[in-house]
Structure formats: structure tokens, C-alpha cells
Amino acid sequence: MNDTLPADVRAQVVAYAADTLADLAESVVPPSLLAVRRFKPSRRARLGAVPLASAMENDAHFRGRVADWVRRTNPDLVAAVTAPDGPPPAAPPAQVAAIAYILRTAEWAVLVEEAARSSAQEVTSARIDAAAQEIRRLEEQIEAVRRLARAEQEQLRGQLEQARADVEEGRRRLRASADRVRRAEVTAREISLAAEAARDAALQTAREAEAEARRLRAKVADLEAAASATRRDNRESRSMDEARLRVLLDTLMAAANGVRRELSLPTTVARPADLLVRSESGGRAFDPFSGVGGRGRAEDDPTIIDDVLAVPGLHLIIDGYNVTKRGYGSLTLQAQRARLLAGLGALAGRSPDTEVTVVFDATAVLARPVGVAMPRGVRVVFSQAGELADDEIRRLVRAEPQGRPVAVVTSDREVADNCGALGARTVSSDALLSRLDR
Fold first, then answer.
1. Are 429 and 299 within 8 A, CB to CB?
2. Phi and psi for 158 in degrees, rounded to 5?
3. Distance of alpha carbon 410 from its chain centroid, rounded?
């Protein structure tokens, strides 16, 4: 049917078939149209056009049911199509051809051809009308363009006349001002020479001013750097002096309180005469380490550590790896540090007045340890890059004020001698290991 029927006739046949399909029982619907029957009525003819057209072409039973439906719904048009005289001329050709095709009348092919010719004539007539309208629209546009061109031509002619008049006036003015221009050029050259001379002088002055400014800026920068260095040195010196003075004062007060408690001295202030008599009688100054590490005790005696911790205001500095390698040398460095710090934490808790610092050698490990857990009351220090723990220990001892008791726990003879020369007392690492193991 796609090749024999014009498009409008085919669309009418499919519409009749779709309307008939809605009135049929599902049992008599051809299998190819069961899915089409489930479509909405408004979409059935559009979505099911192909299967409906195929059924109308190949299924005579379905076509007969569609013919019965057409006879019931369009009796007048069916009667006109089947009349001996044929359909009236005013009848729609596409609808007449569709009914004749469905009823398969003797003249259905002729009616289809007439409908095709009528449709072609309508299409041709519509195209002719559209072409005529387009021609009229283009003619109107051409006429409008012509009118606009004439108006623009008149306008341009007037502008040309005005331009010619302006040019002539310009020529007259140009001739009149030629002398003035020449005089102005001479004056401009003179001014240019004067300006160049003034510019050279200004550039020379600017260069000299810039050189002077650079010199002054350099001098100001030097003065600022010197002032900043002086302020920084003063702050550091003042901070170090204040720290030393405060630690020394605390140490002296703690030592004085400790001596007063040990000797049960009265709280009254001594008289100058008493001090004079005491100095004449050969009295000795107080030594906070008197009695510490006395003769007759072994180097690993744990009581030496107890005596040292009893000194008021003591700063106890420990050579970390020197102690751990003597006591826990089979463990890893991390395990050695953890074990030593755990023991020192308990020891520092019993002597809250004692300042405890442990120094580890950072060069003994591949990377500087980070995030070491410090027990309460214990300070953990690693030597700086390129330095040993011995250097850090000497730096700590040297930073303490004169008069504060400082004890260094190490079995390194060189460290002990250097710290002793700086005023610190040394204690063997074996004594601390014995005290931690007790």
C-alpha cells in the first residue's frame, strides 16, 4: 500500500483502521495489531501506521471488519461511493478514495488515481500561490530598496556639494596659514633645542640624585641592620642574663632553705658583727655537693644519685646514649630511649625541685627523631645537625649561672673533664643505671 496509495489516502485508511481496532474484541484482533490496540486512541494511528497499513493490505478479514465499521459510521459517503453515478464532485477525493480502497469497489483504483492527481494539483496550486506571494514580497522589497537608494543618493549628492565647499574653504585657509606654519616650525625647532638641553640637564640632575639616594638608602639600610642587630643582641643578652639571674636566685633560695632545714637554723637575720667574726675565724663557704660521692663508695652505688637529687635547685644533665648503651646496648636506639625516659620520669616525679635534661646524639640515627614522648618533669634534647651530644651538654653547662649546682651523668672521661672545668660535678652512668634498676 505504501507504493500504490498517495500519502493523504494512506493516512485516511490508517485512521479508519485505528478507529475500527478500538471497537474489536481482542480475540478477533490480528496478532500483529495486539500491541497497537494497547496504544492510546490519540496515538494509535501515528505509532501503529506501519502494522495497520500492512494489515489492510494483506489481511482480508481485518479489511472486511474495517469496511463494516465504515459502512456503519459513514453510510452517506459509502452510498455515494458505491452509487452507479459515482461520488459527487464536491466529495473529498482522499476520503472517497480511502473508502473505495477499503470496500474494494470496482472503480477503487481509478478513484485512488484521481485522489493522487487532486492531491498533486493541490500541492502544485499551493506551491504556485506560495511562489506568487514570495514574488510579491520580493517586488515590494525591491521597490523599498529603490526608494531608499534614491533617498540616499540625494543625501550623498548634498553631502558631496557640502564637502566640495568645505575643501575649497580648507584650501583657502591652508594658503592663508602657510606663513604662520613656517614661522611656527622655526619657533618649534628653537623650542625643541631648548627642551633637549633642559632634558639633558634634568637627566644629569636625576642621575646624580638617584646616585645620592642609593647611597643614602644603603647607609640607612646599614644603620637599620646595625640597629636591628644591636636590639637583637641586647634582647638575647638581656634574656640570657635574666634567665641566669632568676635560676641562680631560685637555686640560692632553695639552697638556703635546704641548709636552714638541715641545720635547724633560726630565721633571724645575722648581724654584720657576727659575719665579721665568722670570716676572721676562717669559716668556709657552703658547698652544695659536700658529702656527694664521698670516698668508700663504688661508682655504681645507687645512693650517689639519691644524694645528688637531694641538692636543692639542682640541674641534672644526662648523656643519654652513654647511659643506654652501657645498660641496654642490645636494644634498638628507639627502645633504649623509651626505657631510659620511662625510668627518669618516675625518678623526676620523686624530686619535683630538680631540673632533669636528657641529651641524645642525633648523629647516631639516620634522621632526626620527631615527636619523642617526654615524661613529666624531663626535658629531651637532641644535638644539632653536624654536632655531637657532647657539644650540646657543654653548651647547657656553660649556660647555667655561676653558683647553681649542676651534675652531669656520663662515663665519657672527656665529657666529664670538660664539664668539670666548667664547674659541674660528674656522676658515673653506672650509678644512674643501678638507681633505675632498684
1. no
2. -65, -40
3. 52
| Contact present, 423 and 397 (Cβ < 8 Å) | yes
Using DSSP's 3-state secondary structure scheme, residue 53 falls into helix
Q: Which three cell numbers stand for residue 419?
A: 664539664
Tens digit of each residue's pLDDT (9 = 90 or more) over 84-96 = 656 656 566 777 7
Helix axes 75-82, 60-73, angle to 10 degrees: 110
How far CA 437 is from CA of 300, 339, 430, in Å, comes to: 11, 11, 10
> How buried is residue 179: exposed, middle or buried, by Cβ count under 10 Å (0-12/13-18/19+)?
exposed
Residues 51 and 33 sit within 8 Å (Cβ to Cβ): yes
What's the fold here for domain 291-437?
Answer: Rossmann fold (3.40.50)
The ranges assigned to domains in the chain are: 7-106, 291-437
Distance CA 144, CA 254 (A): 115
Q: What is the pLDDT of residues 325-362, one digit of tens each?
A: 999 999 999 999 999 999 998 888 888 888 999 999 88
pTM of the model: 0.40
